[in-house]
Amino acid sequence: MGDTITIRTLGPDDAHVLDHVRPGVFDGDVDPAYAWAFLSLGVNVIVVGLDAGEVVGFASGTVLLHPDKPRSFFVNEIGVHKDVRLRGLASRLVRRITDVARERGCEEIWGLTDDGNGAAKALCASLGGEETSGHVMFTWQI
Question: Per residue in 118-130, pLDDT tens?
Answer without folding.
Answer: 888 878 888 888 8
